[in-house]
Amino acid sequence: MSSKKEHVNLVIIGHVDAGKSTTTGHLLILTGAITDREMREMEAEAQKLDKSSFKYAFVFDRLKEERERGLTIDLAFRKFETPKFYFTLIDAPGHRDFIKNMITGSSQADAAVLVVSAKKGEFEAGISAGGQTREHAFLARTLGVNQMIVLVNKMDTVDWSQERYNEIKDEITDLLKQVGYPVKDVPFIPGSGWTGDNLKERSSNLKWYDGPTLLEALDNIKLPPKPVDKPFRLPIQDVYSIKGIGTVVVGRVETGKIKKGQQVAILPPGFTSEVRSIEMHYEELPEAIPGDNIGVALRGISHKELKRGMVLSPTDKPASTVEEFTGQIIVIYHPTVVSPGYTPVIHAHTAQQACTFVSIKQKIDPRSGQVSQENPDYIKQGDAAVVEFKPLRPLVLEKYAEIPQLGRFAVRDMGRTIAVGVVKEIKAKEVPLKAGKK
Ligand code: GTP
Ligand code: MG
């Protein structure tokens, strides 16, 4: 999609069968992101499997097992546009067996649509102690998805009742407050993913409602401003030595601005260097801003001194090299239990570094967001926790609250993602700055 529009990663969350796939599939048809022909094919396929009510869901549910069972297992990605943005839609599964896929989806998202079924019994099941409505909302919050839209779905099954809508709105408002969402900024939309009411066009069945349609609410999303005023950070993805130019590092500007001629500090080693030139798409630039994927030619330093995972930053506001840090994590997969001493690999921005779980400070109940135990001996799959980590070798990280781009991480071991989390606190090391070897 060759669009100049700003890009938003949008995750669709909610209890199993709330209508996430149906709503989002229908939305893609209404926005023209899916052709009539594709839709007819899916309709035929749904009929063949005796699952006609899943025809829209089949846009996302492409796996054989998903279609036969009528549920989402894996994450599915599709693109669509509104007047202002272009979205990558991530349809997450609601079933609790696949919650790790939902977490992976949310850890990449800027905004979420929480789909809640208004159907009798379904809303109640979703919000109950074992339901995923609360759990998903908490996970999305923990993973830093700050924008939330609530779709009160299946309004066709409750005769478009305003009373039912208000009841659900009140309960979900309480729930979102508990997990820490600023509820006054959260739009609530009554609608139906099945009939399409209030997805794109204003519904004539819901005349009592005067708020935005789902598409309008999506177009109204307020992205945080580009972080140009924050200190400059560029995590290195690749390092090259180019004839006639010298050392070039490649990466994406996460925050701040980098200018030609500027002095930079490269952490963790603490080398200083001068920006000789900046290039993007084979064009030289005087400066680069967040989101730009650039090559930076550096003066006076050998490519042998540099590697992926190091971070370029201004010399007066150098990136933080952490000695220890506190993270809030959610364990999404572990065959046994995780206890202090465990040393998996942490992936943050472009860095990978073995880190030890020094201590587990608190266990948190993902359904309520409350601390359920202080200093537990271990945590296991499904638990949320506050953990003290120690990297075995120097690692650049920032507090999520200050520079979120460098404050999210994944814990990996045995070829799988064990946990995801955000950096709450850091204990930074003083790194003296010095010239690098030429
Ligand atoms: P998982 O991915 O398994 O968590 O489910 P989901 O949230 O994606 O739900 P899905 O879209 O698969 O829909 C589940 C069932 O609810 C299907 O039979 C849909 O046809 C039905 N459904 C979804 N939205 C609506 C709606 O607005 N009204 C009615 N009447 N049925 C709906
Ligand atoms: Mg689904």
If you had to describe this structure to a student in words, what would you say it looks like?
There is one protein chain. The protein has helices at 20-30, 36-48, 64-69, 99-106, 122-127, 132-142, 162-179, 214-219, and strands spanning 6-13, 76-81, 85-91, 111-117, 147-153, 188-190, 234-242, 246-252, 258-259, 263-267, 271-280, 283-285, 287-288, 293-299, 311-314, 321-331, 337-338, 345-348, 351-364, 371-374, 379-380, 384-391, 395-396, 408-413, 416-429, 434-435. The chain is of the alpha+beta class and 438 residues long. It folds into three domains: 6-219, Rossmann fold (3-Layer(aba) Sandwich); 234-314, Translation factors (Elongation Factor Tu (Ef-tu), domain 3, Beta Barrel); 321-428, Elongation Factor Tu (Ef-tu), domain 3. Residues 20-21, 57, 61, 72, 91 line the site of magnesium ion.
Low-confidence segments, ≥5 residues, pLDDT <50?
A: none
The ligands bound in this entry are: guanosine-5'-triphosphate, magnesium ion
CATH fold node name of the largest domain: Rossmann fold
Mean pLDDT: 89
Shape designation? globular
Which class of the largest domain in CATH terms?
Answer: Alpha Beta
CATH superfamily of the largest domain: P-loop containing nucleotide triphosphate hydrolases
What Rg is obtained from the alpha carbons, in whole angstroms? 24 Å
- What fraction of residues sit in β-strands? 35-45%
Would you report the number of β strands?
26
Helix content: 10-25%
Terminus-to-terminus distance: 42 Å
Strand order of the largest sheet: 2-3-1-4-5-6
